[in-house]
Amino acid sequence: MSLHSRRRVLLGLGMAALAGCGSAPPAAPPVPGAPPVARQIAPGVYVMPGSPGSADESNLGRIGNAGFIVGERGVIVVDTGTSFAHGRALLAAIRAVTDQPVRVALVTHTRPEFLFGGTAFRELGIPIRMHSRTSRLMASRCETCLKALRQTVGETPLLGTAMYKPDQEFEATHELDLIGRPVRVLYFGHSSGPGDIAVLDERSGVLFGGGLLDAGRVPDIQDSDLEGWKKALQSLRALRVGTVVPGHGPASSSALIDTVERYLAQLETKVRGLVRSGASLLGVAESGELPEYEGWDQYDVIHRRNASVAFLRFERELMFK
Questions:
Q1: How far apart (Å, rounded) are the C-alpha atoms in residues 134 and 126?
Q2: Does residue 28 sit within a domain?
């Protein structure tokens, strides 16, 4: 492939990545743009589902799942929503369930639908907590993501939404003793993203998977270390969790871990075969099809991008062996 063609493909991947700073599908989705409703999935554990599909004017970009855990001494929130208004709506949904104080809001990974609602939490003095590598990635690119989001959903839904710095950063797996029930923050190194975390409520066995797990939607590999991701999934499986709340899509069983792992394995097998056969990057989107996953949300966009991203990685790996 010529240098010009390769640059054209890389530019296309980069633009698609910004346009796809997030996408989603839950099983019983809310009405797009409607106030979030907290759904109890275990005693004291709630999920507020995002809308299906990619961010647009009708769903206001509210496409990622958020949740919260209620203890005897307070509430821990997992992900903050897409915007200042969305964050406020999530807080109102929490208040409809409990008057316990919100002690902290955790951001699981660097996607607009999980982090920009943090401005509403900070307005109330609620600390935002994320991995240091998530914080760095957010600082490096999320001004651009926010501009793209404004173009996608419009200015009005994003009034009051702004970049911010987290109040608390951390480096490793740890337990939070804030609300009277044990909550573990899990970090496995660079996996689906450099600072991506999962959150385990040990009392109920509910796992919030963040960027590590999506249900009924193609996982996005653009920020990933695939080997690290596979190891992280193995570690999650060893925890013997009960219900899994993915970043996008409906709450599921721990079988979701196997489902995501199988997709990543099939993607790798398919694309490595194309690299070895001397295929061209320009044809990978078509030749890298995986029919088993055609029914998943965002297949046409994210899977095709995944195939191209993986091709470039595996080609480079082969060149420098």
A1: 19
A2: yes
Q: Where are the beta strands (DSSP E) in the chain?
A: 23-24, 39-42, 45-48, 53-54, 66-70, 75-78, 102-106, 128-131, 168-170, 174-176, 183-187, 197-201, 206-210, 244-246
Residue-wise pLDDT tens digits, 249-299:
999 999 999 999 999 999 999 999 999 999 999 999 899 999 999 999 999
Considering only CA atoms, which of 249, 157, 140 is closest in space to residue 193? 140
Q: How far apart are CA 51 and CA 60, in angstroms?
A: 9
Q: Is residue 4 part of a domain?
A: no
Q: Are residues 70 and 107 in contact, defined by beta-carbon separation less than 8 angstroms?
A: no
Q: Does residue 216 form part of some domain?
A: yes
Total domains present in the chain: 1
Percent of the chain with pLDDT over 90: 85
Q: What confidence category does residue 26 fall into, taking pLDDT thresholds of 50, 70 and 90?
A: very low
Choose between 3 and 112: higher pLDDT: 112
Domain hosting residue 241, numbered range: 24-254
DSSP state at residue 50: P
Give a yes or no: residue 13 inside a domain: no
- Report the CATH number at residue 69: 3.60.15.10
Cα dist from 166 to 13, 114, 125, 198, 317, whole Å: 29, 13, 12, 17, 35
